[in-house]
Amino acid sequence: MSQALFWLLYRFIAKTSEVLDNGSALVPIFAHLAQPNPAPIYLQCTAGKDRTGTVIMLFFPLAGVPKHIVAEEYALTDLGLREEALKLVAALLKVPNLGLDEDTVKQILVAKKQYVLALCDVLDEQYGGAERYIRNVLKMSAGDVQAIKRALVEGKRPIFGEEENGPREVETWRC
Predict the structure, then answer these.
(1) Residue 93 to residues 67, 80, 88, 106, 175: CA-CA distances in angstroms?
(2) Which of 68, 106, 149, 164 has a CA 20 to 30 Å removed from the CA of 89?
(3) pLDDT above 70 coverage of the chain, percent
(4) What pLDDT shows up at residue 18?
(5) 3-state SS string over 80-92?
(6) Is pLDDT above 80 for 57?
């Protein structure tokens, strides 16, 4: 499957995804960040690039990060997956009735800049950007969005380790 076809696939997934359209899976994450002094969060999924990547892709614009930097960060996923990729390919090829060849499975596991840029484009085209998405789909207030922005850019608290009052809790979500 060509990279151009995967770009179209990511646009299709973004346009038809219940993750974005419904938003219910995202509400607890953003509601947590809208609280005063929220605990740090830890997000994870199988490969850490699609569902988790979507959440992170929503964070970046709120922190004022340009799309091209979002794409660069997303592409770094390949470095993190390098060792696990072969195991994931082997596991996916064993899934009965999946019907994918090895090259296609490898393409699925690649984090290309154009994939997340396609998702960013759909977010802008369909929802008017991350902030409007959070306001209109997740039904959060302007004050909530401002609190989320503060949590994303102002928190200089350690995620792990000791603080003045001992270690902080870390909220964890599995996407």
Answers:
(1) 33, 21, 9, 10, 23
(2) 68
(3) 71
(4) 55
(5) HHHHHHHHHHHHH
(6) yes
Tokens 């296609």, located at residue:
104
**DSSP letter for each residue of the chain:** --HHHHHHHHHHHHHH-HHHHH-TTTHHHHHHHHSSSPPPEEEE-SSSSSHHHHHHHHHHHHTT--HHHHHHHHHTHHHHHHHHHHHHHHHHHTSTT----HHHHHHHT---HHHHHHHHHHIIIIISSHHHHHHHTS---HHHHHHHHHHHHT----SSS--TTSPPP-EEEE-
pTM of the predicted protein model: 0.70
How far apart CA 171 and CA 40 sit, in angstroms, is 6
Amino acid at the residue 5: L
